[in-house]
Amino acid sequence: MAVKNIHSLKRFNPSQFVPQMLHMSMRLKVPLICMTEGQEIPPHPGSTSMFYVVEGRGEITVDGVRREIGEGDLVFVPDGSSRGLKALEPLVVLAAQAF
After folding, report:
1. Distance CA 53, CA 22 (A)
2. Is residue 16 assigned to a domain?
3. Which residues contact 39 (CB under 8 A, 6 or more apart)?
4. What pLDDT is stored for residue 12 in this prediction?
5. Considering only CA atoms, which of 66, 60, 55, 40 is closest in space to residue 90?
6. Is the distance from CB of 12 to CB of 34 less than 8 angstroms?
7. pLDDT tens-digit profile of 46-89?
8. I want to staple 79 with a disulfide (CB 3.0 to 4.6 A). Which of 30, 48, 68, 97 is the partner?
């Protein structure tokens, strides 16, 4: 078992976004995404995923459809769909991707 406190792990890099891998296995990847305002992850294809907004506001784009998201929102993205994320303000997102 591993217990991690998301708030104590938050790290922002204003010059370049770098996800923190909280867990990585052959079947599951769990990154903590901390982005400053304006940083983004360009749309890219991926497997089944979920994104939970811990704090902040951003825009998620799934298969070309853009939607604003904020604290407490949970987004499910189906396998093969394109997804991208942009921070509208400092943004903390816990993601999980199944393989």
Report:
1. 16
2. yes
3. 17, 86, 87
4. 96
5. 55
6. yes
7. 999 999 999 999 999 999 999 999 999 999 999 999 999 999 99
8. 48
pTM of this structure: 0.96
Domain of residue 71, CATH code = 2.60.120.10
Take residue 58 and report the two structure tokens written for it. Answer: 């951003």
Domain with 23, as residue range(s), is: 6-98
Task: Give the chain's domain count.
Answer: 1
Which contacts of 29-32 are long-range, i.e. CB under 8 A and separated by 24 or more positions? 29/96, 29/97, 29/99, 30/94, 30/95, 30/96, 30/97, 31/95, 31/97, 32/6, 32/92, 32/93, 32/94, 32/95
Q: What percent of the chain is helix, strand and coil (3-state, nearest 5)? A: 5, 55, 40
The CA distance from 12 to 61, in Å, is 22
CB 33, CB 92: distance < 8 Å? yes
